[in-house]
User: Fold VOC domain-containing protein from Gemmatimonas phototrophica.
Amino acid sequence: MTSHFTGIDTIILRVRDISAACAWYAQHLGGEQVYEDDEQRLAVIEFSGGSTLTLWQLADGAEFVASGTYPILACTDAKAAHAALSANDVAVDSLSETPGVIYFRFRDLDGNPLEACEVKE
Assistant:
C-alpha cells in the first residue's frame, strides 16, 4: 500500500496559559517558539533537531486534564538533562537504563507527562 504520510508533523499538548507554557518550554527544554496564533491561542515550539510540539491553550472555563499520550524528547546525554532539570526545580523521575537507552520521565508546568531518551550507540 502506498502511504500518503511522511511522518509526524507535531504533537499537541493542552496547557492552561499559553504564555507561561511557552516560557517554561524555552527556559527548561531550550525550545524556541516559531509560530503563534493568537486567535486559536496556540504556539509551536521547535527543538534544535527540528521536531515540534504545539501548545494549545484550553478554552476559558474548560477543565484541564493532563495528557495520557506523551512525547519522548531525544537527547544526547540523558544524565546531564536529568541533572539540569532537577537543578531547575523540575520534578523528574529517576533515570532508567536498558541495554539500548537511558531515559526518564518528567512533567511540564501543567502536569503533562514528557520523557527524555538517549539512545546509546
